[in-house]
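= Protein in question =
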Amino acid sequence: MTRKTPDSHNKDMRAGQALILVLLLLSVIITVGLAISSRSVTEVGISATQEESARALSAAEAGIEAALSGTVAIGSPVSVGSTGTYIVPASSQYGNDPEVVFSEGVRAGEAVTLFLTPYKADGTFDTALSYTGTKATVCWQATGATPALEAIMYYQNGSGKFASRNVYDPGNGIPGAVNVDNGVSGCPTGQTYSYKKDINFQAALNAGGLGVASSNTLLFLRLKPYYNGDNLTTIGVASGGADFPAQGQLMTSTGQSGQTSRRVQVIKKYPDPLPYLDNAVFSGGSLSKKFE
């Protein structure tokens, strides 16, 4: 039997230690390599997904543009070349709610329109769907001032189309204006308001109403703040029960690229009618206000 000398034994130990170190080093290198490879694969996947997402969004936006221009095939996939495809379902109505809020805000002298009769596809009023209520609560903010609010009701009957207006001033600075109501109960939810006025459309002007007979068809209500300067004033209207008619169309487009889809929604509000009598002379009595 051959016995190893101490030197041989030490050499074997050093060789074993070197082997262990080599194996440890290899394991570290392999681990780092796998991590880098995994990260690269992940980044490539993320880049591909981001690219598909951008293409899908572009396709969805193309669908919205086509829908707004009226050139889209409703419900059918449309190819946008290498970008992807989009589908635009039939648009739905925007509105049909007992509350309407103009959250974008309004500057002094500008107006927002609450439609009380919706439009047909051909751009004419659909009087079969007119608002049947006789009252509304109009609410607005104080934005660094005490704004008054003008309400102009456009309506029609067998003789033509007419307008009637009233002004509500919490600051009592406009001669002949009607005071506002106390508190803000009954205002639309989700916004902060400072003033409100419960308007009975059929009440006389001097009683704070708009003097529109029940036999007339309400077309739209234009609301215009004053004294707020360039400060944007939020205006909200609550019916207190019945739904207001549609205020426009909700258009949806879904773009698809690879395995990624993106959806874009746009509210196409009815265009504001021309301000026929917004700045005309009003007497509140014998003067007839009519437009064709």
